[in-house]
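=== RUN LOG ===
request id: a7f3
mode: sequence -> structure
chains: 1
length: 222
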Amino acid sequence: MIKKILYNLLMSLLFTITARAQVNYSISGTAPSEVVYVILSDIATHQQLDSCFTSKGSFHFEGTLPENTFVNLTDNRHEFDASLIIEETPVVVDLGTNVIKGSELNEKFSDYYRQLMRLQVNVISDYHRREALMADTTQTAERQKIERSIQLQLENITAVEKGIVDSNMGNVISAYFLRDLSADLTLNELRGYLNEHYPYRNNPILYPALQRMRELENEETN
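=== RESULT ===
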């Protein structure tokens, strides 16, 4: 029993240290010619961290942030964006194509991010098609076909995200996609993923998932 208590205290201390570990980061890149400036934001808190005017299509950010912070880059007109993970390895971003070069972790995360964005764009396109048919009673069959397509695509996105999470439980990528996936998980599934041994449980990106788990626990006890 004493060993278990000491172990839990040690793990809690380790998570606290990990959550507060600060790293110096360097993010540089290129942007399309129409981009005037680029904005750096914290995805978890939606807080703007910095901004930078482009110079001949190039931009650069550097500073200090907690390691494994998920950040987003977008342009002044919000037409382009890219997301990445803060770490010490310098990152180079092509904002026009959303391609990231850096550590193996960031390049892997970027590949997943672009994959999910492509899937979501297709769903959004079908949503717009469905809305255009809502008032046309002669297109009921076509609207129902689109709605079925949307449902199947959403189920596929959930399956893809679950595969990403399951394949990356040993790194922080899993935390990002657990946030989005949490709305589709049962309480037992959330408890399984977000147990005391999961090293990224304290990452701010997981606040929505933890909140979802607390809500389900409250429902269970009431």
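=== NOTES ===
The two ends are 31 Å apart (CA to CA).
Helices lie at 2-20, 104-133, 140-167, 173-181, 187-193, 207-221.
=== END ===
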